[in-house]
Design goal:
There is one protein chain. Helices cover 70% and strands 0% of the residues. The chain is built from eleven helices and no strands. The longest helix is centred in the first third of the chain and has 25 residues. The protein starts with a helix and ends with a helix.
């Protein structure tokens, strides 16, 4: 990256941070309807400065603890934590990727995968979406992270929880609104939480 490009990104980051500071000063809270908090993270990912990125992610977590986030954000987090040797945090962020899409990790590391014939609430959870967005997500993943990821997904604890999660999603497919469906949706969310605890 050229110095000019880096400085352009840094100026944009500061512009967005200034907007957030002004919002906090005016309303005593963040609303951020423009999504600046996400844009800043993506700009830091582009810079590839993992220490700066990590500081921002820590600030983000303190100020937006309940944000659901999205695939690109969580992959950037997983790579950042890995590159800083924060392996436990990287594992947790990597597991979170499966909540967004259960195919993309395998596609990133070059594994063959077929449609899992499971419940998918939105198009971004599908295999087609993962294939269509693979290139943009691949730009985030470093060679070292991908090499580590290839081993992580082969660990018994990963395989066990991944299998449980997919099994729940398969049971959900085609179910009408009911107490049983609600219980399974809760079980899927709990599965992700338990999975993250299992690798800490």
């Amino acid at each position: 990256m050229t110095t000019a490009k880096k400085n352009q990104i840094l100026r944009k980051i500061e512009k967005y941070k200034k907007a957030l500071r002004q919002e906090k000063a005016t309303f005593k809270a963040y609303h951020d309807g423009s999504g600046f908090r996400y844009a800043i993270a993506e700009l830091y990912f582009e810079l590839g400065d993992y220490k700066q990125t990590n500081r921002y992610l820590n600030w983000f977590d303190r100020n937006f603890p309940d944000d659901s986030k999205y695939m690109y954000f969580d992959l950037g987090r997983a790579v950042t934590k890995f590159e800083l040797k924060k392996t436990s945090e990287s594992k947790i962020a990597t597991i979170e990727l499966n909540r967004h899409n259960t195919y993309l990790i395998d596609l990133l590391i070059g594994n063959k995968i077929t449609d899992q014939d499971k419940y998918e609430w939105m198009e971004s959870e599908s295999l087609a979406w993962a294939k269509n967005h693979l290139a943009e997500h691949s730009t985030l993943a470093t060679e070292k992270y991908l090499a580590w990821l290839s081993g992580f997904v082969e660990e018994a604890v990963y395989i066990d929880w991944y299998t449980r999660y997919i099994s729940i999603k398969k049971l959900l497919k085609g179910m009408e609104v009911s107490a049983e469906r609600t219980d399974l949706l809760d079980a899927a969310r709990q599965c992700i939480r338990d999975w993250k605890m299992a690798v800490k």
